[in-house]
Amino acid sequence: MSQAGWQVDPESGWLVENQTIGFEIRWRLQRLLHHERSAYQDIVVAELERFGRALFLDRILQVAELDEFIYHEMLVHVPLAALPAARRVLIIGGGDGGTLREVTRWRDVEEVHLVELDEAVVRVCRQWLPQLGAGAWDDPRLTIHYADGFAFLEAAPAGHYDAILVDCSDPGTPADTLYSEAFYRTAHRALAEGGCLVQQALSPFIHRDVLTTILQRLAAVFPQRGVYFCPSISYLIGLQAFVWGAKGTNPAAGPARTAPDGTRWYTPESHRAAFLMPPALAIFRASAG
Amino acid sequence: MSQAGWQVDPESGWLVENQTIGFEIRWRLQRLLHHERSAYQDIVVAELERFGRALFLDRILQVAELDEFIYHEMLVHVPLAALPAARRVLIIGGGDGGTLREVTRWRDVEEVHLVELDEAVVRVCRQWLPQLGAGAWDDPRLTIHYADGFAFLEAAPAGHYDAILVDCSDPGTPADTLYSEAFYRTAHRALAEGGCLVQQALSPFIHRDVLTTILQRLAAVFPQRGVYFCPSISYLIGLQAFVWGAKGTNPAAGPARTAPDGTRWYTPESHRAAFLMPPALAIFRASAG
């Protein structure tokens, strides 16, 4: 089962994740459920102690059952509750289905495009992490595109999307171009007036420099932009950062409408708390305006 | 440098922390600054990439420069700002000095007792982590007792302390008895009317069962009790839980007075946000009343 450059060892029951700054993680695999190498990356689904089932791409944990709802609810409901309405939503990445699940909770959404580079991620997650996407994969409003997110967005009509949700892996992975100023310019063009872009953007303490750079690139394109945070358990970074850029909508002002029932982390209070910037995070407030 | 049962290897530059559920951490040591075995435990101070200097007791990270202020400010200022006044403060544990530093910022505090089991922790931290305690170690209001925290509290006068801050290691370590119902009963007796106890209590997602048990024990003693949270970066648990028990004070109601200047995480807003209980944490709200 082990491959070049890889350290999956089902006999010892350990998987080494070494992308992190300052430390390395050895995940204790209770059960290795699936392992394949797609055209783009190495894909593992495993059962972890306490964290539940988890997806790893190129040895980096992407999603775990224990806390995936925090990330997905805060990525989706913060912008969608800040918008007066959201008819057309674009998800870039998000092949595990969690972001899609949250988007389809909104009744007024008429059209969801999900653009995932790697067909294998969707296939594997539908089979091995079925509760991530749940019924959302069969939603009639959904169109899946197996394509490069940047290229897809370049071909999109101007002013089309009310929300663009970038649920991708980190800079330095195949998602690297999705953190470029050119990408933000393309997203700005594709956003409708009043629309909002949100993207996962690592963490404010461990990846302070990368987050600062992302915000600078965003600021070059979006006069209205900023950052918000939610707890992250399974990424082991403490705080997950999301960056946002908008055309006339300000998610930092709090929800403009009521989010769907059934959320486990998102509430109007957690929406507002996500934008708190204690002095230690003021650097991000200052740089993001 | 390596010892029985230990994996400090300054040549490879790795230190293995294996107390965690579901995963194991290998810290990348930039520099091993100090290593000794005291009468109670193994003590390491090392320089880590990104996390700064860190203290390890028995291979478990206790404090790191990167984010220690979040933990210490939230442990101290939440109860002290909720109290109308705090003249007498007891710190149990806290041998690194960070809790002491925050307590001594309060001008109205007249008396601070710090009870640390292991004299070596104080000595090592004063030498190798001097910014933790800063000038607080020389504060004339401070008395240090090298003693068992539980025994010290049993001998304390009834109704003496306005605040008891338990800044100890986790259950299963030498601090185990500090999480017993008997300890909470003793603390209740030593608290003044209107006083408040706060204790670090692991994390709500990774240590859900342990936190639930701690809250049940606390509830058997304190009709007024609960839990609050702050981000934790260097413990790699996402959210740090603190439990509290009070005699007539309710920290969940927010600050009753202004905290000292110069905090980096504590603000009136972060005080209130610490008590947010989204549905996923409602189990702790229900069990803690």
UniProtKB/TrEMBL annotation, chains A, B:
Pathway(s) annotated for this protein in UniProt: Amine and polyamine biosynthesis; spermidine biosynthesis; spermidine from putrescine: step 1/1
Protein name: Polyamine aminopropyltransferase
PROSITE patterns noted in UniProt: PABS_1 (PS01330), PABS_2 (PS51006)
Function of the molecule: Catalyzes the irreversible transfer of a propylamine group from the amino donor S-adenosylmethioninamine (decarboxy-AdoMet) to putrescine (1,4-diaminobutane) to yield spermidine.
Coiled coil start-end: none
GO terms of molecular function: spermidine synthase activity
The protein's Enzyme Commission number: 2.5.1.16
Source species taxonomy: Bacteria, Bacillati, Bacillota, Clostridia, Eubacteriales
Catalytic activity: S-adenosyl 3-(methylsulfanyl)propylamine + putrescine = S-methyl-5'-thioadenosine + spermidine + H(+)
Active site: 167
Record key words, sorted: Polyamine biosynthesis, Spermidine biosynthesis, Transferase
Biological source species: Thermaerobacter composti
Binding site for spermidine: 72, 96, 167-170
Domain PABS: 12-247
Family stated for the protein in its record: Belongs to the spermidine/spermine synthase family.
Subunit structure: Homodimer or homotetramer.
Record: residues binding S-methyl-5'-thioadenosine: 41, 116, 148-149, 174
